[in-house]
Specification:
378 residues, alpha+beta, Beta-Lactamase, Arc Repressor Mutant, subunit A, five-stranded antiparallel β-sheet, four-stranded antiparallel β-sheet, 46% helix
Length: 378
């Protein structure tokens, strides 16, 4: 019962961050406690350039180490590339990506993680594009031990709610204190935005929403009610709106990103944000709305460079790690030190990489990766 109450409180707080992003640090502190971790963050990483940054964090990682990670160690982290293979909403720990004993020998662990007492990291992919991935992750300290089944289960419970909040935050850009003026703020958004009641009746729409409705395609207004063109999508939308009227816990994992397809083949994503719980209920009551619905055109879904390279040349995860270490760090000795494996092991993998990619030199591998990383060639 206590765990359920903690979860419901977290879910409500996570959705409140959509209207007030300043709440993220405090919510992530509670997330760290709930999953039994040391520090939590929502961040992005670039698969091609091995860089990234933090969207939101709880302050559990000292600023010095945070800056050091993105300036130097993100390229030396042996799990960076492998995390792009993870399935959305499924927690992935360090040992799932590289042999844990090998990880303990890497420069990343010895120089960055170990001095802080960190022993493991579990992450969940929130969204992937061709070049980048948005993730939610939690560090484990030595006092917690490595990631266990209990932590994975708790992260699974939080994942769909964090994903929904982050995806909606990408669509809207509200400043602190503007939540009570939501309708006015929505009018300036490029994404089609609607406020609706439990039955789908539209109580407010922005200009982009009216424009999308005028096309009478993926989404339309029938007797003042919001209706999705596809029957299955409309059924899902109805379910999500009814659940939103009850509260955060009722909407569950549904409606995170409802796909819509136009007659032209253009793809759209629809998100539902409940307005009946937390600080959001003030907005709902003011406009007689139970949910905010955001519809925006979705980008083309293409594999990230590491995934595309692995699929094109049938590379194993270990071979892909060696490939990117060679490209990013340098020759065999440096790659071996970075990955925490013997130079002979790097040479063995490198030989297989040359064979599979029909190359003979390390400079050829650099060109190969650069070709996949160019967005014009993706």
């Amino acid at each position: 019962m206590v765990e359920t109450e903690q979860l419901l409180g977290l879910v409500g707080g996570i959705y409140d961050t959509v209207l007030d992003r300043s709440l993220w640090p405090e919510i992530l502190k509670k997330v760290s406690v709930f999953v039994n971790g040391a520090a939590s963050s929502v961040f992005w990483k670039d698969a091609a350039n091995h860089n990234g940054n933090v969207f939101f964090e709880d302050g559990g990682i000292p600023q010095y180490y945070r800056d050091l990670y993105f300036s130097k160690y993100v390229k030396l982290n042996p799990t960076t590339t492998a995390r792009f293979f993870a399935e959305p909403e499924e927690p992935i720990a360090t040992g799932d990506l590289v042999p844990y004993n090998e990880f303990l020998q890497t420069r990343f662990y010895r120089e960055w993680a170990q001095p802080q007492g960190l022993v493991d990291f579990a992450s969940i992919v929130l969204e992937k594009s061709v070049m980048k991935a948005a993730m939610f992750g939690v560090f484990r300290h030595a006092r917690h031990g490595v990631v266990d089944d209990a932590m994975r289960q708790r992260m699974r419970l939080l994942a769909p709610h964090i994903q929904r909040a982050v995806l909606i935050s990408e669509v809207i850009d509200l400043k602190q204190g503007e939540a009570e003026m939501l309708a006015q703020t929505l009018d300036g958004l490029r994404a089609a935005t609607f406020l609706a009641d439990a039955g789908g009746r539209i109580v407010h729409s922005n200009a982009a929403g009216y424009a999308l409705l005028s096309e009478n395609d993926v989404i339309r207004a029938v007797d003042g009610r919001l209706v999705a063109k596809a029957r299955r999508a409309d059924d899902s939308l109805r379910d999500a709106l009814r659940a939103a009227a009850i509260g955060d816990e009722a909407i569950g994992t549904r409606g995170i990103a409802l796909p819509l397809v136009a007659e032209t083949g253009d793809r759209y994503a629809l998100h539902v944000l409940p307005l009946t719980s937390g600080s959001r209920c003030r907005t709902g009551r003011r406009h007689s709305a139970t949910a905010a619905i955001f519809v925006h055109k979705a980008g083309l879904e293409s594999p990230s460079p590491p995934v595309a390279i692995a699929e094109a040349y049938k590379l194993t995860t270990a071979e892909l790690r060696v490939l990117f270490a060679i490209v990013e760090v340098g020759g065999v000795p440096d790659a071996a030190e970075t990955l925490g494996i013997a130079p002979s092991t790097v040479k063995t993998h490198l030989g297989r990489i040359f064979e599979k990619t029909s190359t003979t030199r390390q400079t050829d591998l650099v060109k190969l990766v650069a070709g996949f990383s160019n967005p014009l060639l993706s």
